[in-house]
């Protein structure tokens, strides 16, 4: 299952209710002790990418990138289901998860595929920073979806406390960041400075990324280790997910 994740995000997760405590998360083994964390370092995947500046070359780039991510994460995820990419028509600006009309390029999980809308901001760009970052970050939702992490996050209770709910959400999105770092390492992406990566904006306003220093911490931690086990934000101290 790789559904509901972006939709839940955009809705502000207003349905999280009940009783819970924030530091750290307890009573949710699919989050704190997920089998994914025991997986070995992701293999090195040869993934030579050339985006170009045409729609056709950008589609080829994204399709290859998603294929490389399938290869990278297959050994780590039990019963892994390969994910395909689908390109929206140019005039289709509607997000399946939020219902918003978006004029720029964006990627999101729709049911069991990654759907991508291409516009000039990705196609005409001389570098692939936005396209690579957006696809790899979206892919992190595949990881959380196929491992039960996303479902367990959705089911967390907050005791009707906004601060607890917000911390849960930051734990989730910082883990997404960390998984993106793991992916980049596996694909041989050379990243010396993660600050430009953190400045690539989501297509919807996400206030749950956490402090810039914490985003950098988790991205770099995932990248340096190359293992999903480095990304257990659910047992981290609150200061690390602020």
Describe what you observe in this structure.
42% of the residues lie in helices and 6% in strands. With 242 residues, the protein is mainly α. It has one domain. Strand 2 (106-110) and strand 3 form a beta hairpin. Helix 5 (129-146) packs across helix 7. The longest helix has 25 residues, at 162-186.
Give a topology summary.
Layout lengths: L4 H6 L18 H4 L22 H19 L10 E4 L18 E5 L2 E5 L2 H4 L5 H18 L2 H7 L6 H25 L8 H4 L13 H14 L17
Parallel strand pairs: 1-3
Antiparallel strand pairs: 2-3
Please name the defining characteristics of this protein:
three-stranded mixed β-sheet; disordered N terminus; 242 residues; mainly alpha
Structural class: mainly alpha
Cross-sheet strand order for the largest sheet: 1-3-2
Strand content: 5-15%
How many beta-strand runs?
Answer: 3
Overall pLDDT score: 89
For the CA atoms, what is the radius of gyration? 17 Å
Biggest sheet details: 3 strands, mixed
**Helix content class:** 40-55%
Unreliable residue stretches: 1-21
Alpha-carbon distance between the termini?
28 Å
Series of H and E elements: HHHEEEHHHHHH
Q: Treating each run of at least 4 consecutive H or I residues as one helix, how many helices?
A: 9
| Domain tally | 1
Silhouette = globular
Short description:
Helices cover 42% and strands 6% of the residues. With 242 residues, it is mostly helical. The chain has one domain.
